[in-house]
Amino acid sequence: MFTAAIAGASGYAGGEILRLLLAHPECQIGALCASANAGSLLGDHQPHLPSLADRRLEPTTPQVLAGHDVVFLALPHGASAALAAQLPQDVAVVDCGADFRLADPQAWARFYDTPHAGTWPYGMPELVRADGTRARDDLRGATRIAVPGCYPTAVSLALAPGLAAGVIDPTDVVVVAASGTSGAGRSLKPHLLGAEVMGAMSPYGVGGVHRHTPEIVQNLSAAAGAGATVSFTPTLAPMPRGILATCTARLAPGVAAESVRQAWEETYAAEPFVHLLPQGRWPSTGAVLGSNCVALQLAVDESAGRVVVTAAVDNLTKGTAGAAVHCANLALGLPEPTGLPTAGVAP
Ligand SMILES: NC(=O)C1=CN([C@@H]2O[C@H](COP(=O)(O)OP(=O)(O)OC[C@H]3O[C@@H](n4cnc5c(N)ncnc54)[C@H](OP(=O)(O)O)[C@@H]3O)[C@@H](O)[C@H]2O)C=CC1
Ligand SMILES: CC(=O)N[C@@H](CCC(=O)OP(=O)(O)O)C(=O)O
Fold this sequence. Notes:
By secondary structure, this protein is α/β, with parallel strands linked by helices. 25% of the residues lie in helices and 22% in strands. The chain has a 7-stranded mixed β-sheet with strand order 8-9-7-10-13-12-11. It has a 6-stranded parallel β-sheet with strand order 3-2-1-4-5-6, covered by helices on one side. The structure holds NADPH dihydro-nicotinamide-adenine-dinucleotide phosphate (NDP) and ligand 2. The active site is at residue 150.
């Protein structure tokens, strides 16, 4: 058994971590923390978690969080570093924010307005790298882990196999992805007013300025073993959760179209949470809601000379909380799939 504290328990990511931990056979849920909402009941914020409704939220302090085996941080960017620095090194800290995801301080400075906090092992276990290792190799027994962003999860798992196998060109990657509105968190944002979001799709962060761009570049470069160039355009879709990423890359010279799929089949054959769908069936956000899986499909567009890979994830499950629990399992030496759902909620 392990004990877990959750900072950010009143938010979307914190709520999803709690939903998963309630079904985790090895977890005992400890302190639940918030900021402005400290003192209120969890049931005021997470009505879908009735068994925890009467738990009172505590202030987010190192004293409250220490004394647990695992601390999940689901806080706004910039809030994790000071807190983590005051937690004992033997506590496994799993951070859902961006603070420790990027290795390059200059890339951080171009996209974020807080000082670069540092770099922790990157919590995308299935990510394959050019040297054949996977990111999980850095996560077993780790006590500090940076959980990936939701778009980088979909895009990196979609393209890494082809890059690592050299069948697609890392210098010409184009991604357009649609996200549900929960990706933006719970706090009020004018562009997310219901009347404006419902019934409309719109792009944002256009022109290479979205802060997930350097994280995607970092992952695709690690997979390719060479610098990747990525044009990434996010769009907002009228749905509460889910991401559908359409990723295309130029077919590498001399690669036969019919040999392309093999790279994905071999990379993910033994991965419980990455599903390359049978040929002809395409991913849908509706099929992965509440599940810790990414669904993938690919096709070769021979007239354009490009490989098209589509990925669907639930931004709050595989895209955040599921990855966080998966990482905690690795940190604690538990079987990786413990407590994690592969079944979604449909329709
Ligand atoms: N939503 C998503 O799909 C994804 C989110 N993430 C990351 O997870 C983190 C949380 O996101 P999300 O749950 O969506 O955000 P929310 O806005 O829904 O929740 C934020 C939580 O953090 C608490 N909080 C705010 N400021 C502080 C502070 N200074 N100190 C302590 N606690 C604080 C809030 O408490 P209170 O209610 O008291 O204000 C609330 O519990 C972010 O870093 C986000 O980038 C990562 C991938 C995907
Ligand atoms: C729809 C929407 O607004 N999505 C968020 C992504 C949230 C997320 O995954 O990422 P972080 O952990 O890096 O914040 C955005 O585009 O900023």
